[in-house]
Amino acid sequence: MHITPLPDESASASSRVVTKGQDARAVTDLLRAWGAGETGASEELVPLVYAELRRQARRVLRREGEGHTLQATALVHEAWLRLDGQHDARWESRAQFLAVAAQTMRRVLVDHARARRALKRGGGGTQVTLGEADRAATTTDDVDVLALDDALDRLATIDPRKARLVELRYFAGLSMPEAAAALGVSLATVGREWAVARMWLRRELEA
């Protein structure tokens, strides 16, 4: 299986930044080409999405508790390996790609937390902070990332869109407008559903 290498950390940041205009459209075109199996599309795509993936990784890892051993670079590389292996994926847009990347990072973090727990023979889980996913939050209660994962699975059986919204906000650090674009709904709808989803999760995690 061909794996597209990620850029060196010393590469110029200006070559990796995805803008909201022309570069974002280029990302969409390259994603579609990548999904269609066009040779070289993934190599062209990497410099454009790498900075965004790093931003996602840094945001979510800042919410992890002290002592977490997974670094942003390792999280990005593992997530990219999994994304690059999705040969049947139908990439349609930058927003959709970031949504899938968020889901992939969630799986990497959960797998990492399970491995750490196994090594500790049932010791304490990795802690995350729900409140930091929303700067307007008034509380920063820590919860186990595995408990959060289980709660999101339960929420998905009740309301899949709200579960995806939490995933986008927490695991990708998307803003409300970005999450609305990824979900294809209005900003007002995202605002209402985010408030409901956060209250539901807090109740579940505190039970």
- Radius of gyration, CA atoms, in whole angstroms: 17 Å
- Span between termini: 45 Å
pLDDT < 50 stretches: 9-22, 132-141
Mean residue pLDDT: 75
Helical amount among residues, as a percent range?
A: 55-70%
Count of structural domains? 1
Q: How would you sum up the global shape?
A: globular
Helix count, DSSP H or I runs of 4 or more residues: 8
Biggest beta-sheet profile: 2 strands, antiparallel
Trace the largest sheet across and list its strands.
1-2
Order of helices and strands: HHHHEEHHHH
Number of strands: 2
| Computed structural class | mainly alpha
Explain the overall architecture:
With 207 residues, the chain is mainly α. The protein has one domain. The chain has eight helices and two strands. The chain has helices at residues 22-35, 41-62, 72-84, 94-119, 145-158, 160-171, 176-183, 187-206; strands at 127-129, 142-144. Strands 1-2 form a two-stranded antiparallel ribbon. Helix 2 (41-62) packs across helix 4 and helix 4 (94-119) packs across helix 6. It is globular and about 50 Å long. The model is unreliable at 9-22 and 132-141 (pLDDT under 50).
